[in-house]
Amino acid sequence: MQKSILLLISIICLSLFSKAQSIPNFGFENWTSMGTYNNPDDWSSLNDQTAPSSIYTCLKGTPGVVGSAYIKLISKTVTGMGVVPAIAVSGTLDMITRQAMSGFAFNERPESFAGKWQYMAYGSDQGFIAVALTKWNSMMMQRDTVAMVYHTLPGMVMSWANFSIPLVYMSGDTPDSCIIVLSASQANGAPAAANSYLYADEIGFTGLVAGVKSDEMSKNISFSPNP
User: Fold this and answer.
1) Cα–chain-centroid distance for residue 56?
2) How many percent of the chain have pLDDT more than 70?
3) What's residue 212's pLDDT?
4) Phi–psi pair at 223, nearest 5 degrees
5) Residue 215, C-beta contacts closer than 8 angstroms, at least 6 positions apart
6) Where does the pLDDT of residue 95 fall: very low under 50, low under 70, confident under 90, or very high at 90 and above?
7) Is residue 53 within 8 Å of 41, Cβ to Cβ?
8) 35-40 contacts: CB < 8 A, separation 24 or more?
9) Overall average pLDDT of the 67-83 stretch
10) pLDDT tens-place string over residues 1-55
11) pLDDT, tens digit (0-9, with 9 covering 90-100), for 149-200
12) Is the pTM of this model over 0.90?
């Protein structure tokens, strides 16, 4: 009886831990209505900035590959603003600089970032996906990069397909946070073009990389160029 109770507690704890470490709203099922448009829960976009023009670069697509919804990022021309790149950040996004400001708590060392996507770029535009796992360095009072990837989207994928992008580790530390950037435009500094798009659904991490003690100093986080 006692063993059964301990086993049940262990399963519950494992379930809670796994849930805590998953990407918030990874299937883009949850959206908040802003009246005339929707914003994905736990993700930031430029919708609030373009709302006065009734133009939105982050849309709720239906149905999802799995579930009822997915995220549609479409760069669009906005009067007085030019082409606004479609970008979504798992956390908070600075509306002025259009840079990722923060992410979510995360303390695993996954091997790859994976999911399902569709995308296409116009002109010389190109989309990208960026992921950074970081850890707060209390001695240096800065955030160190544990692993990251900056993956441009070459060619086009016009029907749902699986993707898997390996992370590049820079230290053997365990991270404490994660930032994910999905962008339909501006990879490697390319100018944004209207109608470039990136759709995504069921994103997550796969595999596991063992932590190894290292004397090499981690580099500071940097998404370059910034969206």
Assistant:
1) 18
2) 84
3) 58
4) -100, 105
5) none
6) confident
7) no
8) 40/71, 40/88
9) 97
10) 443 333 332 333 333 333 334 899 999 999 999 999 999 999 999 999 999 999 9
11) 999 999 999 999 999 999 999 999 999 999 999 999 999 988 999 999 999 9
12) no
Q: What is the 3-state secondary structure (H, E, C) of the chain?
A: CHHHHHHHHHHHHHHHHHHHHCCCCCCCCCEEECCCCEEECCCECCHHHHHHHCCCCEEEECCCCCCCCEEEEECEEECCCEEECCEEECCEECCCCCCEEECEECCCCCCEEEEEEEEECCCCCCCEEEEEEEEEECCCCEEEEEEEEEEECCCCEEEEEEEEEECEECCCCCCCEEEEEEECCCHHHCCCCCCCEEEEEEEEEECCCCCCCCCCCCCECCCCCCC
* 171 exposure class (CB count in 10 Å sphere: 0-12, 13-18, 19+): buried
**Residue whose token pair is 């760069």:** 75
The tokens describing 49, both together, are 């900035």
Number of other residues whose CB lies within 10 A of the CB of residue 54: 9
Q: Do the beta carbons of residue 44 and residue 154 sit within 8 Å?
A: no
Which residue carries 């991270």 as its tokens? 175
Q: Indicate if the alpha-carbon torsion angle 168, 177, 111, 209 is positive or negative.
A: positive
Kindly report the backbone phi and psi dihedral angles of residue 212, in degrees, each rounded to the nearest multiple of 5, phi listed first.
-130, 135
